[in-house]
Amino acid sequence: MTATVDEPTLTTLEERARAGTGTFGEDHLIVCDSLVRIYQSEGVEVQALQGLDLLVEQGELVAIVGASGSGKSTLLSVLSGLDVPTAGRVRVGDWDLMAMSARQRVDYRRSMVGFVWQQTARNLVPYLTSTENVAFPLALAGIRRRDRARRAAELLDVLGVGYCADRRPGQMSGGEQQRVAIAVGLANAPQVLFADEPTGELDTATSHDVLEGLRTVNRELGTTVVVVTHDPGVSEHVQRTVAIRDGRTSSEVVRRTQTHDDGTEHVVAEEFAVLDRAGRVQLPQEYRETLELAGRVRLALEESHVSVWPDRPRPAAAPAPAAPAPTAPAAVAPAEDPGAAPTPAAPRAPRQAAPTAGPDDAEETR
Ligand SMILES: Nc1ncnc2c1ncn2[C@@H]1O[C@H](COP(=O)(O)OP(=O)(O)OP(=O)(O)O)[C@@H](O)[C@H]1O
Ligand SMILES: [Mg+2]
Q: Biased composition, Low complexity: where in the chain (predicted)?
């Protein structure tokens, strides 16, 4: 008698697929799930976002960093409702950004999110004072004149630019203008504020004031803030810095406050690689170069981590490779392991024949 194998029906497969994706980021305010954005220009395809995953919790202050052209502005355009991705899933609060009508898109942009752009001139109307600039979106929303003035004064105060209330943009420094611009972005009390390179045209000291302004807004008003920046000092101002590389999130720096035995508090910044939902992780370029990792690599499952080995035969009598340079560990420790040291212990020889991973397999090599 032949054994019967239970073939899954189409319905079962659909249910399984829904169960698998339905929960990703369920309790987060912002969910980007495998976002793809392809631009077509003059017959050439540019993949600005290549399956990007990102989760942001309500009340977080997150910085997005990455090389020019990595997809940061594309991501912010999508999140702010200006652009629609080619594929994937994107949700902010209750708003499904893939399925909004034109009218809902306008509502979303007026009520749910605020923006600050890099160009100071794009944020403020040049012939209006700071108070009038903040009051302008409130007037569009039908708020009474007296309430508009009160709200404008409150916001300018929170951002430390109350003294600029009666000045026009031309009478303020770049940093003051950007802090007024943050107040404008917050006029309608959005849940999320997006800022694309708000410090791009500013010097270091002034950038510091603007980033601190965003931090104050996050802390005092509870607004969730996502800020794109080139500013290398940004991770000092935020809890989480997400790096984007080639249209995907590649690594994160998380800052935590640790209390030592003597009661003193220290801020510790730890860098993590991001393991995406398909199991891919991007190895930093310096690691790949130091160990000449390219094409195929061997993976080995160790007790507490996974090690990545170059695909080179080792001399028969040679011992296992020596410990890598401090900057070039080739092992990926689980992020949730609180004891995970930034530099893992020397890799041991794989315990058994390790699987071979090609670029399209479990390992990402670019
Ligand atoms: N409207 C467009 N048409 C065609 N290609 C585009 C368009 N907008 C962006 N791109 C391309 O998409 C990629 C990502 O661009 P994006 O502006 O998101 O990068 P970025 O990370 O913000 O860079 P920067 O730091 O220079 O602002 C780039 O290769 C860019 O040339
Ligand atoms: Mg940009």
A: 328-359
Strand partners, 271: 253
pLDDT tens per residue, range 88-106? 999 999 999 999 999 999 9
Q: For atom 31 of ligand 1, which residue has the closest CA?
A: 69
Domain harbouring 45, CATH code: 3.40.50.300
Residue 286 lies in a domain: no
234: containing domain = 28-253
Check if the beta carbon of residue 301 is closer than 8 Å to that of residue 348.
no
The residue whose C-alpha atom lies closest to atom 4 belonging to ligand 1 is 39
Count of structural domains within the chain: 2
> CA of 10: how far to CAs of 3, 16, 158, in Å?
22, 10, 56
The answer to whether residues 183 and 37 belong to one domain is yes
User: Of the residues 74, 122, 199, which should be mutated to test ligand 1's pocket, given the most ligand atoms within 8 Å of the CB?
Assistant: 74
Q: Is 333 a member of any domain?
A: yes
198-254 pLDDT, tens digit per residue, is 988 888 888 888 999 999 999 999 999 999 987 777 877 888 999 998 898 888 888
Decide: helix, strand or coil at residue 37. strand
Together in a domain, 219 and 340: no
- Give CA–CA dist 96/105, Å, rounded: 10
